[in-house]
Design brief:
Blueprint: H1 13-33, H2 40-56, E1 79-80, E2 90-91, H3 94-108, E3 115-121, E4 124-131, E5 134-140, E6 146-147, E7 157-158, E8 170-177, H4 180-194, H5 201-210, E9 220-229, H6 236-243, H7 246-255, E10 269-271, H8 274-287, E11 295-302, H9 305-311, E12 321-325, E13 330-342, E14 348-359, E15 362-368, H10 372-378, E16 381-382, E17 385-389, E18 397-401, E19 411-412, E20 426-427, E21 434-435, H11 443-450, H12 463-471, H13 486-490, H14 497-510, H15 515-522, H16 529-539, H17 542-547, H18 550-553, H19 563-573, H20 575-583, E22 614-618, H21 630-639, E23 643-645, E24 654-657, H22 663-671, E25 674-676, H23 678-684
Parallel strand pairs: 2-12, 7-9, 22-23, 22-24, 24-25
Antiparallel strand pairs: 1-6, 3-10, 3-11, 4-5, 4-8, 8-9, 11-12, 13-14, 13-17, 14-15, 16-19, 17-18, 20-21
Helix pairs in contact: 1-2, 1-5, 8-22, 11-12, 11-15, 15-16, 16-21
């Protein structure tokens, strides 16, 4: 459930007046050039604070207040709308939705039996006017009564055809936006032109739609969400269109060759109860992180034309529709600093230090910056206002600087001249800079990772013990552990016979770990536990993996044309380490896998109990699974033919829910995902335990 959203606290009339002015300036900037000093969430909080103050002090309401106005009152158009293009009121959770629906049904005097549920696209509302089936005019929403003519954009908007399938006179309403790919292309064009980038897809779309004098053209995308027949059209098709349910209107719109969300994972559906509405809301919210375009909520409306007509309109919004807002995944904050750290493979990675900001329900103070090349491409500077983005379970990342908010006090980001860990030289030949010593730079981190529970699982090797072995010259990498003798260990301080024998026994057991664990211990860049299991099960033997070229590696799920050559190069670099492991007698095969021949392995049998299933595990396990680590449970899933995943989505086939399953169980219930208890799951995969 989404908590009630925060709002700006306005203490007195002066603070209220300042807030009104700030909101007016922000709206004018956004609807003018597409730039604003406030992100969407901050603007919404400001307007909610203004509204709260006005409820307490109705005698102090200023004429410039954005409350009750379409587009915050910032836009005055010169093209009248045939029917007002109004905003939507908002709800922020199931309880708000239920209250709104109850109020609507009281107004109607009957139960709503058909609800339309669609994504709320994060763009700009426009009206596309067709005459005789030909696109003749584009008009922005403006102030709801009249909008701005932006017909110059015709021909640059994907999904909005020049001609419809039928020669009809109709007004199509929808959202103009930028997809993720279009936004990246637009930023590249703008950077090549003046060295700056757009703040986010929504502001980029707003500015682009109005721009007429740019020396470069940026592509936009249209998704239709409604249709109105021409006001003077009294033909039978027009009359029928006026009586159709909203869902059938959208089917007609798509049939005319106009893009709708019908072909996306968040297609509009009709629900017959509020419970079904809430289920679809959760389904759309779960897909949000994977969509190639932005959504910031879900629109719920009466599907039947009769219900819409009886409910009517307020001065600002239709009473028969509401926007169910989702938590913000994007905010603007300050870039305070950049930290440089060397990882266990020697890669030197920058991390952004941010002014704390609440994002998607959590406080974010650090974010990913990827590498030097990425910082340079984005033109980031210390002190910049930056867009920070987070989606799903993804680590927050810095998206872009908000160039128009620069004050002149920003400073260039200083790049390291030597390795921040050991002080040695840096290899700058690739985008991801690396210490010339590679894994040897952070040998203790590399070895500690390799011997961890989810890799070789060698008990008794804490970091201080590893450092002791390194200082004594007994090891330089984790392969050397398998050749350390009892006499050498006994010669170390605080190593008695009992602890020595236990450690040697643990090292001996590690020799028999499956190939997937050994491969994971290598720490190949671009792979992890799950990817290591897929590689090991596909090829079956280390030699087959080493013999595979980039093309053969791409057969493995998750390895694309960019990652495959990097894995091949990394394995070549690790050749000496792998040879030492082989010489020490470490296992190099995967139990149950068919060894690959000529770079291709036999596919897993369809008879496996979890074949083709995506499985998520959450909560505390019990019964036969209680003693297993989460990684061991994931290994079990993949031995049984499934794919282990960490997050619930519409693609999830099965959720194994233990005690205190929490939010993942709630999301799975909303998506209709099958849920089983640990004991039932253990029975399903019993022969693989």
């Amino acid at each position: 459930m989404i908590d009630a959203p925060p709002h700006a606290e306005l203490s007195d009339q002066a603070a209220y007046a300042a807030a009104v002015q700030l909101a007016a300036d922000a709206a004018a900037a956004y609807y003018g050039q597409g730039d604003s000093p406030l992100d969407d969430d901050a603007y919404d909080q400001l307007v909610r604070g203004i509204a709260a103050y006005e409820r307490e002090h109705p005698e102090q309401v200023l004429p410039a207040s954005p409350t009750g106005k379409v587009a915050g009152g910032a836009v005055v158009g010169d093209v009248p709308h045939t029917v007002p293009m109004l905003s939507l009121d908002n709800v922020f959770g199931p309880e708000d939705l239920a209250d709104w629906a109850a109020s609507l049904e009281r107004r109607l005097g009957r139960t709503v039996t058909a609800w339309s549920v669609e994504p709320k696209l994060d763009g700009l509302a426009i009206s596309a006017r067709y005459r005789g089936g030909r696109l003749v005019q584009l008009v922005t929403r403006g102030d709801g009564s009249a909008g701005e003519d932006v017909s110059h954009a015709i021909g640059t908007v994907v999904g909005l055809p020049d001609r419809l399938a039928d020669p009809v006179t109709v007004e199509l309403r929808g959202e103009v936006m930028m997809t993720t790919e279009q936004f990246e292309q637009a930023c590249a064009k703008r950077q090549a032109h003046d060295g700056s980038t757009f703040a986010n897809p929504r502001s980029a779309a707003a500015g682009t739609l109005r721009a007429q004098d740019r020396p470069y053209v940026c592509e936009l995308t249209f998704f239709g969400y409604g249709a109105l027949p021409g006001p003077d059209d009294d033909s039978e098709p027009a009359a029928r269109l006026r009586e159709l349910p909203h869902s059938e209107i959208m089917t007609w719109v798509a049939g005319q060759g106009v893009q709708t969300t019908a072909a996306t994972p968040v297609a509009g559906v009709v629900a017959t109860s509020l419970e079904q509405v809430q289920e679809r809301v959760e389904q759309i919210a779960a897909e949000r992180a994977e969509l190639p375009f932005g959504i910031d909520g879900i629109v719920i409306k009466c599907d039947l034309a009769a219900d819409q007509e009886k409910a009517g309109f307020s001065s600002r919004a239709p009473r028969w529709a509401i926007a169910y807002k989702l938590p913000a995944v994007e905010k603007i904050t300050k870039l305070l600093g950049v930290e440089w750290n060397t990882g266990r493979t020697g890669v030197i990675a920058p991390r952004a230090v941010l002014e704390p900001v609440t994002l998607d329900g959590s406080i974010v103070t650090y974010a990913t910056l990827h590498n030097v090349a990425d910082i340079t491409r984005r033109g980031l500077m210390l002190g910049d206002s930056v867009v920070v983005y987070k989606a799903g379970d993804v680590i927050p990342r810095v998206e872009s600087p908000v160039v128009h908010l620069r004050t002149g006090g920003e400073q260039p980001i200083a790049f390291p001249e030597v390795c921040p860990s050991c002080g040695d030289a840096i290899d700058k030949s690739q985008e991801r800079w690396r210490c010339v010593r590679g894994r040897a730079c952070r040998a203790i981190a590399s070895i500690s990772y390799a011997v961890g529970r989810d890799q070789l699982d060698i008990e008794g090797l804490a970091d201080n013990r590893i450092q002791q072995l390194l200082d004594a010259g007994l090891i330089t990498d984790f392969a050397d552990l398998f050749t350390v003798t009892r006499e050498q260990l006994l010669g170390l301080e605080r190593m008695g016979e009992t602890s020595t024998d236990k450690l040697l026994a643990a090292i001996e057991r590690a020799k028999d770990r499956p190939l997937s664990r050994v491969f994971c211990a290598l720490g190949v860049r671009g792979t992890g536990r799950s990817m290591s299991r897929r590689i090991a099960r596909h090829f079956g033997a280390m030699q087959a993996i080493r013999d595979a070229d980039a093309e053969a590696l791409q057969v493995v799920d998750g390895i694309g044309p960019e990652k495959a050559p990097l894995v091949v190069a990394e394995l070549a670099e690790l050749g000496e380490l792998i040879d030492k492991l082989i010489a020490a007698g470490v296992n190099m095969t995967e139990p149950g896998a068919v060894t690959a021949v000529a770079g291709a392995a036999e596919p897993a049998s369809a008879e496996l109990p979890l074949a083709g299933m995506s499985v998520v595990v959450t909560g505390a396990m019990s019964g036969p699974l209680e003693a297993l680590s989460r990684n061991e449970v994931n290994e079990l899933i993949e031995r049984a033919g499934g794919k282990a995943s960490s997050s619930v989505s519409a693609k999830t086939s099965l959720l194994v829910a233990g005690d205190k399953a929490g939010a993942k169980r709630t999301k799975a219930e909303g998506l209709g995902v099958r849920i089983v208890a640990p004991d039932e799951f253990a029975q399903m995969v019993g022969r693989f335990l």
